[in-house]
Amino acid sequence: MAEKQTQLKSIDFSKPHEVRELPKGKIELITLNGVTFGRATCEPGWRWSTHVKPIAGTSSCQAAHLGVQLSGVMHIKMDDGTEMDIKPGQAVNIPPGHDAWVVGKEPVVFIDITGMENYAKQTKAA
Questions:
Q1: Contact predicate 35/52, CB 8 Å
Q2: Domain limits at 87?
Q3: Residue 26 maps to which CATH number?
Q4: Neighbours of 45 (CB within 10 A)
Q5: Rounded to 5°, angle at Cα 102 from 96 and 107
């Protein structure tokens, strides 16, 4: 039976539906009313081109991300050369075609509402 969209409901990230472990990070996923929310935690030293590129198999991250930074500083470098630091409390739209890395010694925690459903999803060998 389909979930009623008018029903008051919450889901806690302490009990995610799925966890994807990555080198120096993890992605925790929950789905509510058909929307997948991802909480990305990236440790100091994490970099997309080093730690996720081998999983994605693309030259840069091709996922779009719309979300809010909760902690830490993440540097984004777009394929066109545009760069930006994302800091706690900032909402951000990151289009496909970028690299990203943690700046400093504090872990980054980012809540994403658009780009995590297939992010760093590993397929099992047949």
A1: no
A2: 18-112
A3: 2.60.120.10
A4: 13
A5: 120
Residue 57 vs residues 10, 48, 113: alpha-carbon distances, Å:
35, 11, 23
Q: Does residue 48 fall inside a structural domain?
A: yes
- pLDDT digit string, tens, across residues 85-123: 999 999 999 999 999 999 999 999 999 998 677 666 654
Determine, yes or no, domain membership for 122: no
Distances (CA, A) of 40 to 13, 28, 66, 68: 11, 7, 12, 11
Question: CA-to-CA distance for 58 and 39, rounded, in angstroms?
Answer: 22
Is the model's pLDDT at 124 over the cut of 60?
Answer: no
The SS3 call for residue 51 is: helix
Express each pLDDT in 18-32 by its tens digit: 999 989 999 999 999
Q: What's the CA gap between 14 and 2, in Å, rounded? A: 24
How many residues are given for the chain? 126
CA 85 to chain CA centroid, Å, is 15
Model pTM above 0.90: no
Q: How confident is the model at residue 55 (pLDDT cuts 50, 70, 90)?
A: confident
